[in-house]
Automatic annotation (TrEMBL):
<keyword id="KW-0012">Acyltransferase</keyword>
<feature type="transmembrane region" description="Helical">
    <location>
        <begin position="37"/>
        <end position="58"/>
    </location>
</feature>
<dbReference type="GO" id="GO:0016020">
    <property type="term" value="C:membrane"/>
</dbReference>
<feature type="transmembrane region" description="Helical">
    <location>
        <begin position="253"/>
        <end position="273"/>
    </location>
</feature>
<dbReference type="GO" id="GO:0019706">
    <property type="term" value="F:protein-cysteine S-palmitoyltransferase activity"/>
</dbReference>
<comment type="similarity">
    <text>Belongs to the DHHC palmitoyltransferase family.</text>
</comment>
<dbReference type="Pfam" id="PF01529">
    <property type="entry name" value="DHHC"/>
</dbReference>
<dbReference type="InterPro" id="IPR039859">
    <property type="entry name" value="PFA4/ZDH16/20/ERF2-like"/>
</dbReference>
<keyword id="KW-0472">Membrane</keyword>
<keyword id="KW-0808">Transferase</keyword>
<feature type="transmembrane region" description="Helical">
    <location>
        <begin position="65"/>
        <end position="83"/>
    </location>
</feature>
<keyword id="KW-1133">Transmembrane helix</keyword>
<dbReference type="InterPro" id="IPR001594">
    <property type="entry name" value="Palmitoyltrfase_DHHC"/>
</dbReference>
<keyword id="KW-0812">Transmembrane</keyword>
<feature type="domain" description="Palmitoyltransferase DHHC">
    <location>
        <begin position="138"/>
        <end position="288"/>
    </location>
</feature>
<protein>
    <recommendedName>
        <fullName>Palmitoyltransferase</fullName>
        <ecNumber>2.3.1.225</ecNumber>
    </recommendedName>
</protein>
<feature type="transmembrane region" description="Helical">
    <location>
        <begin position="183"/>
        <end position="207"/>
    </location>
</feature>
Length: 374
């Protein structure tokens, strides 16, 4: 452990500041490519659906308005949730978890890992942490030089420790964690509804175009047109019963159907998996490796019941569950545990709260209601 701490203190090999700056901006630009791809897909789908389908293809004014109103509601909620997931402020780990310079020097000069473990234990004795490493020692990040709060992990892409880290998502260019997990769930849910709506409303026109194409091939219109001849039957098939939509416009509708179908399949599986994680109060990292407590690994160590787990992420007010505003409980550092775990770890014991003094409990909601109200 000492060597790893020392390595974190050694500066990187020096090279020109211009190269460092260039590499930094190139890396930042590269990380935005997946987001740019998603934005371009959304922009194109807006043109395909609103312009080509609703305006040029659909004949009924009532149907046009119904489709446009529903589409824009889903689009606004989808884009709003996506924006909040990307640009949510990921707050740093509080200073009280960071090792002071004096303690760090003791760590560097310690002769054994047992000595280092003792230093960390003494430093963390008043910190509200219940999880441990596989060896039973305090979870410590030698790159950020801090004791990790429960469920926090170091993100190598963001180069920092993140509270309740789920995973780093390249499609949002951000860590999915305590501060934006609700937004991420709403983003997946609204994106899935958006794709299903576009797919369902494009399906009748996709079927109609497919039937027209089959008739077109059956009448050998492709061979007739290749010879330079035109027949009324073939011209009528080319024009089709698609309003004022051009031939290219029809293919925009077809592509919109297939693209929405493809994304709906992938989003459906991803959204379903994260619903499972929410109900069981796990992160993606914890699903692959159960959190370690003093009594050993426990995959359900933070699960307090399906509905309470849900409200831990989405909050106490049903009116705000579907709105991308932050309503999650807690401060991202302290989490309630099942009754057995509370008794063994003394997470909510009076002695533990006495050490917090007059500070508001971590799960107080806007200084008015505690997590016990769940």
């Amino acid at each position: 452990m000492a060597s790893s701490v020392q390595n974190s203190r050694i500066s990187s090999p020096g090279y020109c500041a211009c190269c460092r700056t260039c590499n930094m901006w190139c890396w930042k630009g590269f990380k935005w490519l997946p987001v740019s791809f998603i934005v371009s897909i959304i922009t194109w789908s807006y043109y395909a659906y609103v312009i080509q389908l609703c305006i040029f293809t659909i004949q009924s004014t009532v149907q046009q308005w119904i489709y446009l109103v529903l589409y824009h509601i889903l689009l606004i909620m989808f884009v709003w949730s996506y924006w909040k997931t990307i640009f949510a402020e990921i707050e740093p780990i509080p200073e009280k978890y960071k090792l002071p310079e004096a303690e760090l020097e003791k760590m560097l000069s310690a002769e054994s890992e047992d000595s280092q473990r003792t230093i960390l234990e003494n430093f963390a004795k008043d910190l509200p942490i219940v999880t441990r490493t596989m060896s039973g020692s305090i979870r410590y990040c030698n790159r950020c030089v801090l004791v990790k709060p429960d469920r926090a992990h170091h993100c190598s892409i963001c180069a920092r420790c993140v509270l309740k880290m789920d995973h780093h998502c390249p499609w949002v260019n951000n860590c999915v964690c305590f501060h934006n997990y609700k937004f991420f769930m709403l983003f997946l849910g609204y994106a899935l509804l958006y794709c299903l709506f576009v797919m369902a409303t494009c399906l009748p026109y996709f079927i109609r175009l497919w039937k027209m194409y089959e008739e077109y091939k059956h009448a050998h219109c492709d061979l007739i047109l290749e010879s330079g001849a035109y027949t009324k039957i073939c011209v009528d098939m080319i024009n089709g019963d698609f309003g004022t939509a051009t031939s290219s416009g029809r293919y925009h509708i077809i592509f919109a159907f297939f693209v929405s179908l493809m994304f709906a399949i992938s989003l459906g599986s991803l959204f379903g998996y994260h619903c499972y994680l929410v109900v069981n109060n796990r992160t993606t990292l914890e699903a692959f490796r159960a959190p370690m407590f003093r009594g050993g690994a426990d995959k359900n160590g933070f699960s307090i019941g399906a509905f309470k787990n849900f409200k831990e992420v989405f909050g106490n007010s049903p009116n705000l569950w579907l709105v991308p505003v932050f309503t999650s409980f807690g401060d991202g550092m302290v989490y309630p545990t099942p009754r057995e775990e509370e008794e063994s770890e003394s997470l909510l014991s009076s002695e533990r709260w006495d050490r917090w003094g007059d500070r508001a409990r971590p799960f107080d909601e806007r200084e008015s209601s505690s997590f016990d109200e769940l």
